[in-house]
Design goal:
Blueprint lengths: L3 H25 L2 H27 L4 H25 L8 E2 L2 E4 L2 H23 L1
Antiparallel strand pairs: 1-2
Amino acid sequence: MPQVSDVTANVGILREALQTGMANYRKTTPVNLKVIDVFLVYFAFVAALQFGYCAVLGSFPFNSFLSGFLSAIGMFILTVCLRIQVNPDNVTDFENSGVNTPVSRERAYFDWVACNLVLHLVVFNYIG
């Protein structure tokens, strides 16, 4: 059985690690990535809220629940892909058609918008 002092020490180490990580995040992350991170938190919250609603109150119009839930999850995944593409640390990971020039930010945002249109066309079609 763990001792109280061990748990307290571990909590202190965890708190210090979180404070250091947040300080580094605030200092080194560009503003556009922080905005994308806010969208990611929002989409995760919406998906969790819909899942909780379904678990507690039921999913009578199941197509509607599934459409909303998959829309939130799909938006989350597409936004993660956008964040990876526009992150300046990942510029060398995305090359444009084998040429040694990285994918432009404009193209990454256009791809995100185009994929969102396809996602939401499928979602609207599935609602019924």
